[in-house]
Automatic annotation (TrEMBL):
Cell wall formation. This is UDP-N-acetylenolpyruvoylglucosamine reductase. GO terms for molecular function: UDP-N-acetylmuramate dehydrogenase activity. The active site is at 164, 237 (proton donor), 334. It catalyses: UDP-N-acetyl-alpha-D-muramate + NADP(+) = UDP-N-acetyl-3-O-(1-carboxyvinyl)-alpha-D-glucosamine + NADPH + H(+). PANTHER family: UDP-N-ACETYLENOLPYRUVOYLGLUCOSAMINE REDUCTASE (PTHR21071). Its cofactor is FAD. Residues 20-187 form the FAD-binding PCMH-type domain. It is found in: Cytoplasm. Pathway: Cell wall biogenesis; peptidoglycan biosynthesis. It is an enzyme of class 1 (oxidoreductase).
Length: 339
């Protein structure tokens, strides 16, 4: 099998969880990352790397070529009896990696079960759920920088991980991630603080749950809570929670005492709930043709079947405008909008 396969005029509906029926003129599937420098040398415009397309919105047919990693091997790097290091290909499906690790009794990724996407994308927004962010398990990220032609083994500190943020997110075309090395542990600390997680464990497991039991509980909670993209197209949380100066938050709370407010990244800022702002603006369950806001989730925009990227973005625009009109706060899309 060749290192790279080139496909033409590709239908993308299956390659984005929103289920938008865009087309790409060219899609390159990479099975061996050794071929990455030569592939990038062919491009006049920066390509779009797609994983599972669970954090992108195809607002139109992408004008750039697409690249998809299909390298999905797990390589054992070291095992000292407690800590096990795995290097994993960018094309590995994230949830499969989590299930592979918990099946071997390894702690580290169990709270992150059932997050859609690929290993190559997991460092980009430092995926997180149920009280854990993936940076807690990442040893290093192997990446190619097309601008300089250099390969890097970026350490955890180099990656500048923060809440839903990283070095990679600051400039999305700077690095191409080809594999990620994880630290996993046989004697781990179960992290069960997140609301509802402990209750979802089997009774006998609440004190010393295995990683498998925690992952299974997370999967059960997520299945019950979130619309499944294979049934109803969506990109998870469509809007970021806005961060505002403390004074702005205080003025809003004076007007809307029931408004949820969380600590921001510093004492001078506060994080507001985009879901609450959208719900209060009357959008939960709203539907414009096949584009809608999920009935149970103000933060999740859904494709009921044949919504185009433009339909989804028009609805998003109307929601952002109406929240701004009512609360004076501009919310922004969370996924990468591609046109
Ligand atoms: C139902 C649902 C629930 C979700 N729940 C969560 C959650 O709980 N927590 C959370 O953090 N996120 C969540 N997400 C968001 C999403 O799962 C993550 O952002 C995920 O990491 C995206 O992976 P992907 O492979 O689909 O990336 P894509 O959507 O394909 O790409 C996302 C970005 O990463 C870039 N990219 C992808 N692969 C590479 C690579 N190898 N090298 C360089 N750049 C790359 C793309 O160019 C793009 O900018 C959810 C999404 C959905 C649909």
């Amino acid at each position: 099998m060749s290192a790279i396969e080139r496909l033409e005029d590709v239908e993308l509906r299956q390659l984005n969880t929103m289920g938008i029926a865009a087309r790409a003129a060219e899609l390159f599937e990479v099975r061996d990352p050794v071929a990455v420098p030569a592939l990038w040398a062919r491009f006049d415009t920066a390509p779009l790397v797609v994983g599972s397309g669970s954090n992108i919105v195809l607002a139109a047919d992408p004008r750039m070529p697409l690249v998809r990693f299909r390298n999905a091997d797990i390589e054992l790097i070291s095992d000292d009896g407690d800590r096990v290091q795995w290097r994993v290909g960018a094309g590995k499906i994230w949830h499969e990696l989590v299930m592979d690790s918990v099946a071997q009794g390894l702690f580290g990724l169990e709270n992150l079960a059932y997050i859609p996407g690929t290993v190559g994308a997991c460092p980009i927004q430092n995926i997180g759920a149920y009280g854990v962010e993936v940076n807690s398990a990442i040893e290093s990220v192997h990446a190619f920088e097309p601008r300089t032609g250099e390969w890097y083994h970026l350490s955890n500190a180099d990656c500048e991980f923060a809440y839903r943020d990283s070095l990679f997110k600051q400039d999305l075309s700077r690095f191409v991630i080809t594999d990620v090395t994880f630290n996993l542990y046989r004697r781990g600390e179960p992290r069960l603080d997140y609301a509802g997680l402990r209750d979802a464990l089997p009774d006998a497991a609440t004190l010393t749950p295995t990683p498998q039991q925690i992952a299974d509980a997370v999967v059960a909670i997520r299945k019950a809570k979130l619309p499944d993209p294979t049934v109803l197209g969506n990109a998870g949380s469509f809007f970021k929670n806005p961060i505002v100066p403390l004074q702005v938050a205080d003025a809003l709370v004076a007007q809307y005492p029931q408004m949820p407010v969380f600590r921001g990244s510093s004492d001078a800022t506060r994080k507001l709930s985009a879901a609450w702002l959208i719900d209060q603006s009357g959008w939960k369950g709203h539907r414009d043709g096949d584009a809608g806001v999920a009935p149970g989730h103000a933060l999740v925009l859904v494709n009921y079947g044949n919504a185009s990227g433009a339909d989804i973005m028009n609805l998003a625009q109307r929601i952002m405008d109406s929240v701004e009109q009512r609360f004076g706060i501009r919310i922004e899309p969370e996924p990468r909008v591609v046109s």
